[in-house]
Amino acid sequence: DTKKPILAAAGVRGIIRILSPASMSCIRNFIGHGNAINELKFHPKDPNILLSVSRDHALRVWNLKTEANIVIFGGVEGHRDEVLSADFDMSGEKIVSCGMDHSLKVWNFNTENIKEAVKASYQTNPNGSKITFATVNCHFPEFSTRDIHRNYVDCCRWFGDFIISKSCENSVICWKPGNLDANRNEKTTIEDESTIIQKLDAKDCDIWFIRFSMDSEEKCLALGNRTGKILVWDLDVEHPSDIRCSVLSNPKCVSTIRQTSMSRSGNTIIAVCDDATIWRWQKN
Fold first, then answer.
1. What's the pLDDT tens digit per position in 169-202?
2. In whole numbers, what is the pLDDT of the chain averaged over residues?
3. Which of helix, strand or coil describes residue 167?
4. Could you tell me if 156 and 163 are in contact, meaning their C-beta atoms sit under 8 angstroms apart?
5. Residue 193 CB: number of other CB atoms within 10 A?
6. Hey, is 117 helix, strand or coil?
7. Are 154 and 209 within 8 A, CB to CB?
8. Adjacency order of strands within the sheet including 15-20
9. Phi–psi pair at 114, nearest 5 degrees
10. 123, 131 Cβ separation under 8 angstroms
11. Contact indicator for 16, 30 with CB cutoff of 8 Å
């Protein structure tokens, strides 16, 4: 309501903390996950909605305004090990998740049940106090596959109707659930096939928990490696075979780059390393 920015942080204790950079304080805590939290994602259209994924094999969606836990994704057909990464698509209607069970799953965040739950999560009592809220449990993903990677899948992002994901196999893979001609809104089953569109070679990315990032328009992808270099691919091409990789390096940056973050325009890349250094790269 204040229109001021907020920061969400979480880690090994499984507690999500909402921080206000303006007041330099923690304004909310969210407790629900039974183990460490591996990634957080804000909804692309509603900044009050936050997605979290955890070592407890589940994904949770929260309403930061009312502190309601809207939905839990997991259970019967959910992940069988740690969930390492997840992402909303640009419309905020689908979620892709991946984990240590080698699988990638697509969840529907736009069902009537969930839409009603999101709406209900904003309701409060007349005096402003919180109401009792029944969390939705979603046990069945819309799509699931273990055919893309043969090891831990530690990062996944939507790329239009496609998905980009990586494991510790020296590559980043762009793929699509179902066959190439299938409409993304068609009903799929757990046994549906997937189609690999393009495989990008990524040298020295053979250890797990190295994350890539993209700009807001999905034109560039940046990925660090274990030798301190950043691989940058230009995705704004006519054909996947035209994608080219550039390498950013500095003689003093030799430690594993665990995560990169690109600015919305793609002109700035922030990289964090195992030796506790933070590097900033600026496009000329």
1. 999 999 999 887 766 555 545 456 899 999 999 9
2. 93
3. strand
4. yes
5. 12
6. helix
7. yes
8. 7-9, 15-20, 25-31
9. -75, -40
10. yes
11. yes
Kindly state the tokens that stand for 2. 């204040």
Cα distances (angstroms) measured from residue 9 to each of 12, 28, 40, 182: 11, 11, 7, 37
Report the relative pairing of strands 245-248 and 230-234 from DSSP bridges: antiparallel
Please list, residue by residue across 25-53, b when 16 or more beta carbons sit within 10 angstroms of its beta carbon and e when fewer do: eeeeebebbeeebbbbbbbbeeebbbbbb
Closest CA to 258 of 281, 230, 224: 224
Distance CA 272, CA 256 (A): 8
- Which pLDDT score, from 0 to 100, does residue 29 have? 96
Write down the H helix ranges in 89-216: 112-121
133-174, pLDDT tens digit by residue?
899 999 999 999 999 999 999 999 999 999 999 999 999 999
The pair of structure tokens assigned to 128 is: 């402003």
Q: Is 134 helix (H, G, I), strand (E, B) or coil?
A: coil
The H or E element containing residue 139 is none
CA–CA separation, 129 vs 58, rounded Å?
A: 28
- In angstroms, rounded to a whole number, what is the distance separating the alpha carbons of residues 33 and 114? 20
Closest C-alpha to 38, from 16, 18, 21, 70: 16
- On whether the CB atoms of residues 162 and 175 are closer than 8 A, the answer is yes
pLDDT tens figures, 10-32: 999 999 999 999 999 999 999 99
Query: Strand, coil or helix: what is 246?
Result: strand
